[in-house]
């Protein structure tokens, strides 16, 4: 499978504004329905409101000790931002700068989960604050791609 060629990517499932209202609600930690090999797409949105005059350094953190046979692609506001290979490693933490992550607005995070064999997988992902510094450069504009129907 070539990265960038997933059906969900071609359809824009990872882009802000894509309507997931008809999708079944499922936590990433539940893995795929049926618990076997396969592929799934998980999408969520959330708002952030960090204080003015601060630099907040944030990362997305997958579980550190999981060696289950899965791969996951992480998308933040439409941008492919990381690849987790749980049974090989080593990267579990993906720092995301302002401009990609909207520190004072709505954000969309998507995970394309690929379970490699008939073992049920249960990944976890959380947004962690690595550091908060006084100062800051002021508001940073985001220029993230948004979903729109194909013509």
From TrEMBL:
The keyword Kinase does not apply. One of its GO terms (molecular function) is beta-galactosidase activity. Pfam families: BetaGal_ABD2 (PF13364). The keyword Transit peptide does not apply. Residues 7-118 form the Beta-galactosidase jelly roll domain. Keywords: Glycosidase, Hydrolase. This is Beta-galactosidase jelly roll domain-containing protein.
């Amino acid at each position: 499978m070539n990265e960038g060629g997933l059906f969900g990517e071609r359809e824009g499932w990872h882009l802000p504004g894509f309507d997931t209202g008809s999708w079944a609600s499922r936590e990433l930690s539940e893995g795929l329905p049926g618990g076997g090999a396969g592929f799934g797409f998980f999408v969520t949105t959330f708002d952030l409101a960090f204080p003015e005059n601060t630099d907040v350094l944030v990362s997305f953190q997958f579980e550190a000790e999981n060696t289950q046979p899965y791969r996951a692609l992480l998308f933040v506001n439409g941008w492919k931002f990381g690849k987790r290979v749980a049974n090989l490693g080593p990267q579990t933490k993906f720092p995301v700068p302002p401009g990609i992550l909207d520190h004072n607005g709505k954000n969309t995070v998507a995970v394309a989960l690929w379970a490699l064999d008939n073992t049920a997988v249960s990944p976890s992902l959380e947004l962690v604050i690595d550091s908060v510094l006084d100062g800051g450069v002021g508001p940073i504009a985001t220029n993230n791609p948004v979903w729109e129907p194909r013509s």
